[in-house]
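Figure 2 data, in text form.
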Amino acid sequence: MNVLTPAVDSFDMGKRTVFDQGLENELAAGVDFFADEMTHWNAGSRLEELHKEVLQYRGLVRGLLFALASAIDTKDPRTHGHSVRVGTIAVLLGKELKRPSRELETLEFGGLLHDLGKIGLPEPLLETGATWSAADEALIRSHPEQGDRILSRVPGLEAIREIIRHHHERWDGQGFPDGLRGKEIPLTARIVAVANRFDSLAEHTSGGKSRSLDSTLQKMAEEAQSSLDGRVVEALIHVAAEGLLRIGKERCAGIAIERPTSFYP
């Protein structure tokens, strides 16, 4: 200190003490700032790791659900790929209806698992041309409740369970299992109901002839406001007009429907 002053003792000890304290405070503040920056850096790094782990987990869950959907569809050879297509179409409808990204995931998973309750049904009941007794029909109509019951043991899946339970409700209240009508039916279930009906009409034709896209959409329009939500059917027609729906081996044009795919952020 003294080298900067003309006299040896011109920088007295009182002033030096104040200076040293100021320097100490500045150094302490610098150390605290550096520690905070390191903490933020470590927290950011950990958050990035957690984000990657969540994405990996979600990918694993999606893959397992696709495998389960395939197992469900093997119960009836006519419906191979049906559950995947329903999940895909449901997401397209959700996007058209401007639903949030989290709900798009629910629509995909609900579409994949909407027929989960059929996994316990006797295969002869699902065969083409099978004759059903009243008891058989009651058993088949129980599959939404059975699917809901299967997932009830898994916490956090309530939104998916709503889809599974209510995808056979009708807009006019004549559906099952709970006879809900109109907007009493959860919107996600109404969306999956339209996706399910579209794929079923495209799959099951009469006389061995393929049904055209136009005739399928016409049939859907006729069912709007009776069994189906007219607003969701309108969204389906818009999606078809964009060229995203096809009738044939690949019903969802431009979308890889044979493997898990993310349709949302």
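Caption note: Confidence is low (pLDDT under 50) at residues 1-11, 252-265.
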